[in-house]
Task: structure prediction
Amino acid sequence: MRAALYARVSTSDQQTLPMQLEEMTSYVTNRGWKIVNQVSDIGSGVSDRGKREELLQEARRRKIDVIIVWKLDRWGRFLPDLVTSLRELNDLGVGFISLTEALDLTTHTGRAMAGLLSERIKAGIAQARKKGKPHGRPKSAALKETKIKKLFKQGLSKSEIARKLKIGRTSVIRILADESSISSFWSP
Result:
């Protein structure tokens, strides 16, 4: 198995970085796998995860078979993000292991646990909706819908629009797709 190690520490907690990497390296060695990439993100906040995105790109290109983290919260801080990224890895056939939680999505038991977690999250969201409670991220990109459409009509690419407005490219794609599906519905 081609393994990638992902370590993350906040700017104030850098002393745990060597320990994380040492434990993950030991785990991979004991399993007889090969480390093909080892990356670390240092910073506070969700936006400081450039190396995580690098690993996701490698997974999409089928350059790795498994991603190993020391602790699940090192991979993602918010449950929807965790579920989405782990589902994507699963769909790509890339395993995911969190050492401290003993979560191993390369096994049938681990995948079953992940499925159970996903179902519980969906049930919790459904219950929150019934009670009228908001959930998820605030709709910041939706507030820029008019600007997105204007810039797209001016010929800017979706990536350029995202950079210019400081929002995710996926949000730009979704907003423009919603527009095209509405207009195609009304056209004969």
